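Researcher: I'd like a structural prediction for the single chain below. Treat it as a standalone chain; there are no partners to consider.
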Amino acid sequence: MATKLENLHLEIKHCNNFKKWMPDYNVTYTSEQLNTFLKMGIIQVSSAFELAVANVGGFTVVSEDANDFDEGSEGKLSSVRTCWNGTVYSAPVTNIKNKTGTLRVQVYERKQDKFYYFLIPHWAHSQVGHKSNIEIPFHIDGTPKTEDSNRRRLPNWWQFRVKSFKQVCKQIK
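Model: Treating it as a single chain, here is the predicted structure.
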């Protein structure tokens, strides 16, 4: 199983959020079948996310090192977690080093049980060091930490927030 057992509930939460946009959903398989496969850990949720984004956005999944989609962008999932001895609550967007286009990000925040969506352009995420991740900040209570208190001079990631899954799938010009 590629997904750690302790993170399986987060993967299921992510998938259940976008499953209605997956190709052939409720035609080839039912919600119950999908949930059974998810609980067994046999679905690669990040790949399912890419299929859903491509289905809505009208582009093709290519799954290359630099990008997931034929128009040059990349799909990412993240769940907010606590770190630094409980003093920081943020959503890590990882493995961005070789990405050459916009990041299409779905973030799940578990305390408020909400999803957030981001379109982060290459010019912004390319400022992150090669050994670092994007960290989208939240307050400890789970509310967005939108004020810009970033001392490292990185962009305020909240400026790239979009309102919905469909918006995160829009064509980028």
